[in-house]
């Protein structure tokens, strides 16, 4: 049995490349439980990866990219019902798809969650560190595909006074954000927006705003062109994406190969990174960051970072 280890500020720096100052700020703001994990042995890792292989080869997995808001309507409606007699916090906003005991990826290997929902809490640390690096000075931030609003709650505590707007195609999301505004920050608003068609509230002002997506572009599959054209037309000041970016995987590593195969079976985001690179080569946009982090779930890396802006913004 391997030794139990702690994920703290130094490990967050290692995972994200953030500064020591940012890392300590993250832990001060989150008030997370002590984050304990255990590296899997070679035999345990092999067993876990064989299970992932079996899932990819033999199990049905819902593919994304179809305009099917009912999946998210029902999912977020369940969360609205659960929140009815609870305050809105990072704990109560945890999506149902996080599990407290499934292995996850850390620093190139697999680890077992010892702290319940270790993966969820470390994911919050990672995204908050990215927010602090790229969005801390922004005064107007719009998140597309905001879901439960957890990222807006984190941003409301990090970017005091910033105007925050959450866009989602599922109406229960706006219900959650309205409650969040009442309980936590009057600077949070919700609106309906369909990323597949890039259509929604006509009063939405993007110019000079920062745009954020977290695990939302992934749901577009290869149908991201309308949303990208929308961004290029409306010209936000900055675009920050925390997403699974299939183009960053290395074909020489089994962990990466399985992640890529899982990604493609789910038909997650594909082609967006090459499109941004092509736009950068033509001088239309500037890429500020494109990198992986040292943390991920069991099946794929959903915390890769792409930050860019239209040239002239």
What features would you describe in this structure?
The protein has one domain (5-310): Rossmann fold, CATH 3.40.50.150. The mean pLDDT is 91. It has helices at 9-16, 20-30, 42-58, 70-82, 118-134, 150-158, 171-183, 225-234, 254-266, 272-282; strands spanning 5-7, 35-39, 104-106, 109-113, 140-144, 163-168, 188-194, 199-200, 210-214, 238-243, 285-291, 295-296, 304-310. Strand 5, helix 6 and strand 6 (163-168) form a beta-alpha-beta unit. With 313 residues, it is an alpha/beta fold. The chain has ten helices and 13 strands. An eight-stranded mixed beta sheet has the order 8-7-6-5-9-10-13-11, sandwiched between helices. It has a five-stranded antiparallel beta sheet with strand order 1-2-4-3-12. Helix 1 (9-16) packs across helix 2 (20-30), helix 3 (42-58) runs parallel beside helix 9 and helix 5 crosses helix 6 (150-158). Helix content is 39%, strand content 20%. The protein is globular and about 55 Å long.
List keywords for this structure.
313 residues; alpha/beta; 8-stranded mixed beta sheet; 5-stranded antiparallel beta sheet
Task: Give the topology.
Layout: E1 5-7, H1 9-16, H2 20-30, E2 35-39, H3 42-58, H4 70-82, E3 104-106, E4 109-113, H5 118-134, E5 140-144, H6 150-158, E6 163-168, H7 171-183, E7 188-194, E8 199-200, E9 210-214, H8 225-234, E10 238-243, H9 254-266, H10 272-282, E11 285-291, E12 295-296, E13 304-310
Parallel strand pairs: 5-6, 5-9, 6-7, 9-10
Antiparallel strand pairs: 1-2, 2-4, 3-4, 3-12, 7-8, 10-13, 11-13
Helix pairs in contact: 1-2, 2-5, 3-9, 4-7, 5-6
